[in-house]
């Protein structure tokens, strides 16, 4: 008899229909066929999903907990997503709400604790900004990075739109920005990290990570919903010295609770930092979602990184909400300073350093 | 000045706000920063998204067409999805509705036309069934496949839940099922194809495809939303002799129109067959969605494959609706026949062969 892991779905249903609907999901997410056509006793006992609990959560929605066989996952992150929500994602009365992660997925190789050590930042939140707009030549991106770094920021990441475009090919961008940031850190004495954005397939990402490593970098970013879950897990195994940051691109389209997808699954598969659209920015996540997402990430040793319309003016409020185990990522708002970017970055870094953490 | 490709979003908005909202999406999906902070004229001209049209489609929804710079895609399928819907997916007033595909993505290496030639099936629809339940040992799966093939079906696919589990490892399952189907085809004279399901990361899938090729197979299946879009595109390039079937797992969770995602994008990136949940089964797609999805797939030389609760009793209705350029995939309903599976498969094959296509 194989072990089980529990998956919780939020299901819209009337009270009379919920038991049958729950059994339907348990079958869909395991054997996907009529039980009466199964002749193999072991399959019925060990593989068919089991409804473990059904609880009303209000407004005609029920929390349905289903035990799935751990053997079905075959230790693969993509297959895990397939078993947890593959076909049921196609039925729009169901949201994938939570998962008791099986021990198969060890979390990030390098996460929050590692970032505190590497940056020498103990008690405060981290600061970060983004290289954009895409379309700029490599030289301009490098100069922008240098000015951010001269301002003393902890992290400078590629905009997630930066891929391997002809106007800033990865093979030129990564060394140029790494060198620019290194020049700045020799002046400031602060070990600012550049986070290049990985793109393409597994082989392209490997090549970009090897190049990054050759340039002395130890951080990189990818979007798991685009790259594939197994790609993230594989890169975690092959580059255990890197902190991998997960970008949420294409992740909001899913009927998967953000606190689960971004806060728990991405870290479980290997992300040491999880970027997400914070409440109060350009996106619609609630404060409760953001709080839960950040807690989930921290409990997996991953750094929660609220973003998406953060401003310097909101620094105190954001830090009061998220506390010191976070990175404040301010992109467009810093870039508004144009010629005064290094000074603005410095003001940002100081505000985060001087904040009275509760 | 770089070329543009058009992306159409359906946006919930009031009439007064739609122009500003459309401009917001155009910025989010290109430079993702305030335009007034951009000093580079070429970026403003060539890279920033342009609102091309706004048309009301009723019920407080507008069709917003935005021209994005083709250069931003860098010829990568994943980056294409990132530019088309990466961040905007996180805003729940927007659905990715349609895309005028740029010529960068050539479609399947082997598609519908190739399937007609390989199977020697000219004027009728194709037949297929699925190996399940998962949890059965390799020998049982192989015997099931042989019985399906003895019934004269065109395709026998792995259930999409079959990955690389200990109870039926890919390295044993693929050769065993291939041999079983080959035995049957020597008896029937009909070139039934086995479609193994690929799992894991790019390297695992490559190994499984090489094994499949060594076993004389020329078809395989993967779930692009789980594997990653660039993985599909890469496998298309590396295995141009294979027909790659796209499974929709995890695809329904997205706020991306199914006719676009499954019918157009998966084929554009390399799928020669597109499995989707048909109207009238266990899933909620409308007849209009199914019709449009099937048309999109065919126009990319991909075979539309309605599935998800099809039954033998519905054969005539389904074939009247989809016509001959389709595969009728009946899984669980055939398996109900248990000991009489070969006979039921034969009845199914004959019903599809004898159908009066209009």
Write structural notes for this entry:
2 copies of one chain form a homodimer. With about 350 residues, chain A is of the alpha/beta class. Chain A has 2 domains: about 5-100, RuBisCO large subunit, N-terminal domain (Alpha-Beta Plaits, 2-Layer Sandwich); about 110-355, TIM Barrel (Alpha-Beta Barrel). Chain A is built from 14 helices and 12 strands. Chain A has a 4-stranded antiparallel sheet with strand order 2-3-1-4, with helices on one face. In chain A, strands 7-6-5-12 form a 4-stranded parallel sheet. In chain A, helix 3 packs antiparallel against helix 9. The longest helix of chain A has 19 residues, at about 170-190. Chain A starts with a strand and ends with a helix. Chains A and B meet through helix 2, helix 3, helix 7, helix 9 and helix 13 of A and helix 2, helix 3, helix 7, helix 9 and helix 13 of B.
Give a concise summary.
Helices cover 41% and strands 19% of the residues of chain A. Chain A is an alpha/beta fold and 358 residues long. The first copy, chain A, folds into two domains: 4-99, RuBisCO large subunit, N-terminal domain (Alpha-Beta Plaits); 112-354, TIM Barrel (Alpha-Beta Barrel).
